[in-house]
Amino acid sequence: MSPSSVTVRFDEAWPIAVAIARKAAAQGIDSVLVRDVLGRLCLALDDRRRELSQDSVERWRADMTEGLGRYAASNTVLLASDLFAAGAVFDSPRLVDEPGLEGSSEQGRIRALDNTVVGEDWARVTTPSAETSGGRTARIALYGFKGGVGRSTATFMLGKHLADQGRCVLVIDLDLESPGSGPLLLIEDEMPKYGLVDYLVESALGNAEGLDLVAPASGVPVTGNGELWVAPARGHGSDTVPYAYVDKLNRVYADVPGSAFPAFADRLEQAVAACESAVAERSRQPDVILLDSRAGIHDIAAITISRLCDLALLFGSDNSQTWNGYRDLFTAWRTSGQAVAIREKLRMVASMVPDKQRADYLESFREHAWTCFSTLYDDLPAGDQTGFNPSPEDIYAPHSPIPILFTLDLVGLDGATSQGWSQRTFVQAAYGEFLNTATHLIGEGL
């Protein structure tokens, strides 16, 4: 059976293309594997300093065409000498080194340029700058791979706890498809006129100036000098014009190629900064921003964890869905070369821990978390202590679970309508260790 008659799937195409790129690397040629939004691949060869024979180029072109099947781009091999703007490929800021293929004096270097419709921000890990974070504001993301793990309730509890300690706290509800912390913290009639969704739509047209985005948390008593502010996903709207939330939501993620207006990731970053500035103007600079992120492998979560936060609290239950999901995410970070940049700002939260089997449950959770996080840790020879590879028992490691206890009393509790629910004894017992540990971690970053 000839290679051209074999059906090649997405996962199989990449190693085939890497094997062909290795042939060019063996001749000392640097190359870039370019993958388009459909997953099709081409091999860009940098022949500007070392000439390639036409026979080699044609052989690799045939290998790509026959080996990749439908995942071969229309032009499978590109030469830098033939490109009008070779720097757009070979000097792109989005280039990622393929692990183990960095090149040497004899071997060429192989890099990747992956073009996707969504999700590129999972592979762009940065830390909020002093300009965007007010110089001292700690930004904390609360994220769960799956919904239903109590993330928004934990955001409520942590926001109130920090405010009761005298901090100025801003909670931003980034779960646009299913707003959670906004409705918990704000009474409907006391919501701001606009929400995050409005900023994201208006800023795409340069029209976001002057939006009313934040309000003090209503119905949530705060002791002492602390403050609790909220930026909801949706606003209250106007009494005269219907609030078209779904119509706005259908447009927030749109990026217009070649547009003078910012891309979605930039708009989201600007939205968070605008909410922070609004609190500072109306009261004082927030000490802490809690980002209640959307669940799943979603662009909002990607930007929140990879770009907007100093600490990411990852929620999960001890089940296969949790670990399979996080393993996929961690593998993507490792493959894109971002493991070192991301791993030390992560911390696992074990939600819905059964009180009666607490010790056994947390032990199982810790073992599964360590196995999962090992994807992000360094592979060290026996006795080597120079890298980052904490033991399963290390209570300060990213995989070490911060527990939130589960009790039947929490089932069906409507926090938006139950006055004083967060002060009930069983709620305080369930969240006590989480609040103390999270507060300690946040305090280290201030």
TrEMBL record:
Molecular function in Gene Ontology = ATP binding; ATP hydrolysis activity
A Gene Ontology CC term for this entry? cytosol
Keywords on this record? ATP-binding, Nucleotide-binding
Where is the CobQ/CobB/MinD/ParA nucleotide binding domain positioned along the sequence?
140-245
Has UniProt tagged this entry with the keyword Disulfide bond?
Answer: no
**Which BP terms in the Gene Ontology apply to this protein?**
negative regulation of cell division
The cross-references to InterPro entries, in alphabetical order and at most eight, read: CobQ/CobB/MinD/ParA_Nub-bd_dom (IPR002586), P-loop_NTPase (IPR027417), ParA/MinD_ATPase (IPR050625)
Please list the coiled coil stretches: none
What NCBIfam families does the entry give?
AAA_KGGVGR
Protein name, per record: CobQ/CobB/MinD/ParA nucleotide binding domain-containing protein
